[in-house]
Specification:
By secondary structure, the chain is an alpha+beta fold. The protein has helices at residues 4-22, 70-90, 96-122, 159-173, 175-228; strands at 24-26, 31-33, 41-45, 49-56, 133-139, 144-146, 149-151. The longest helix has 54 residues, at 175-228.
Amino acid sequence: MKIIYLTLAVIVTDQLSKFYIKGISIPSLNIKFEGMYLGESIPVIDDFFRITFTENPGMAFGFDPGSDFKLLISVFSLVASFGLLIYLFIIRNKSLSLKIAIALILGGAVGNVIDRMFYGLIYDYAPLFYGKVVDFFDFDFFNFSIFGRNYDRWPIFNIADAAVSIGVLILLFFYRHHEAEDKKIKEAEELAATRANTDSLNSVNEPSSKNINDGLNDGETDKGKEISL
């Protein structure tokens, strides 16, 4: 199941980018990188695209449902990730676009689950399952309102969020294509089964027909002998 490499690539890229932004210190391996300070913002393309270090205690794209739901969100994300992994195995023989979509969603889900589960312990600020997700992509697309909140910039996100969003978009745009492919595969399987049954019946009937013909020929030969006598 080679598609799992796409999931692993998303997870590794996501975590490396977060360590680069937040910094990491592993004394036993002599690794120490300071990263950015919380709230720091670096312009990349004027004010349109910035790298802004924020920590999100809630859901994707900065949506925070409150601390009361923090554990629930973390556990649900973990269970959903296992479910996606099982589903990816189930669809291993399905269309490539479907597998790519699920692999991206799985990689993004696991990337953020790692933050929620372990970052509080790694950076020593919260217990297991209470870590904060590191976000840093900051775009100024347009102003909009959602869930009663007004935004003058797009919510800051990370690579995991982007992978999930791209995977969902692939599912939406290629849904009919997936259905058509599944229908073609099913029709091909049914046609192959029908041909196999037909060939099987023909192979059974051929000896019987041959025996009947042989019998008729023998009968005609015997009659010919009687007439000659």
